[in-house]
């Protein structure tokens, strides 16, 4: 497999205590591997993966809320999907976060494309990206107060959709 | 004493004539946000041809329109935009809520989708369907035409500068045999 080289490099650089290789899923494509890294070290790992392992493309940044998920120990799983455009290797970097400390270092200095992706994760889950140049909501209106993709947010919201002025005929 | 009226002269009320002009020349503002917009386009295209009912002049500036057709779901971020566009349309104006989503939120009963635009702007006609067929939209236009003709000018607003209304009323009071007009029912 092409991806063992990357895992070996990670072992050589970071040892084996902090991070672990994730389970290989039946649905994984060839050349795709998964690792789980600690929250405080995320930026270091990403930087190493970009500069020394050739992962020059950030495909996606997303997040999963594991509230009430079976056998889950942590609340949020922050996911960075990386690709190496030279070797076609893919790597899923996962990092578990728990309240109240939902802060990680932003990946925007490494990949410019992380800007809007991290804003979306902030908007929907409330993960705070330290060092992000412009951490505002990207999809929801600025005055929205919640993070609606969290599992404890009610599907029908908390009245935001009805919190508007009602126009009548008289007002035109 | 009789007045001879030639054959090619019709006597009518100004209100009725204004309504007749308006109902046969509706200029729609297509507020199309979803798949209903595709049916709206089909309604305007040659097969169904909304021009047969005088409503083919779709304008993308609200200032040139008098019929807003809201075709598709409206999310809470879009609603202030919808209200602003409605307010920019000159009087008299009407609104068709096209499809299940615009009328009730449809299947999108979620935090961000407005559950019926009639909660926030006035609506004259509702078209059920997901999406409605062009025939249904045309039926709504026909029904709206009947409504426009029956109601006269919408609350008489454009004739209703206060002084003007007062003047008309005073005139009617001094003329014998005329009933005072009752106020229009609130729509």
What does this structure look like?
The complex is a heterodimer of chains A (172) and B (187). Chain A contains three helices and seven strands. The mean pLDDT of chain A is 88. Chain A has one domain: 2-Layer Sandwich (Beta Polymerase, domain 2). The longest helix of chain A has 12 residues. In chain A, 19% of the residues lie in helices and 22% in strands. A four-stranded parallel β-sheet of chain B has the order 1-2-3-4. Chain B is an alpha/beta fold and 187 residues long. Chain B has one domain: Rossmann fold, CATH 3.40.50. In chain B, 35% of the residues lie in helices and 10% in strands. Chains A and B meet through loops of A and helix 3 of B.
Secondary structure layout:
The complex is a heterodimer of chains A (172) and B (187).
Chain A: H1 4-14, E1 20-21, E2 32-36, H2 42-51, E3 57-65, E4 76-83, E5 90-97, E6 103-105, H3 114-125, E7 128-130
Parallel strand pairs in A: 2-5, 6-7
Antiparallel strand pairs in A: 1-2, 3-4, 4-5
Chain B: H1 14-23, E1 28-32, H2 36-44, E2 67-71, H3 79-88, E3 94-98, H4 99-104, E4 125-127, H5 134-151, H6 162-174
Parallel strand pairs in B: 1-2, 2-3, 3-4
Number of domains of chain B: 1
Terminal-residue CA separation of chain A: 68 Å
Secondary structure tally, helices of chain B: 6
In which order are the strands of the major sheet of chain B placed? 1-2-3-4
Can you tell me the CATH architecture of chain B?
Answer: 3-Layer(aba) Sandwich
Question: Briefly, what CATH class of chain B?
Answer: Alpha Beta
- What is the assembly state of the chains in this entry? heterodimer
User: Total strand count of chain A, please?
Assistant: 7
Q: In terms of structural class, how would the helical and strand content of chain B be classed?
A: alpha/beta
State the CATH superfamily name of chain A: NADH:ubiquinone oxidoreductase Nqo5 subunit
The helix-and-strand class of chain A reads alpha/beta
**Count the helices of chain A. How many?**
3
Helix content of chain A: 10-25%
CATH top level of chain A is Alpha Beta
Order of helices and strands of chain A: HEEHEEEEHE
The profile of the biggest β sheet of chain A is: 5 strands, mixed
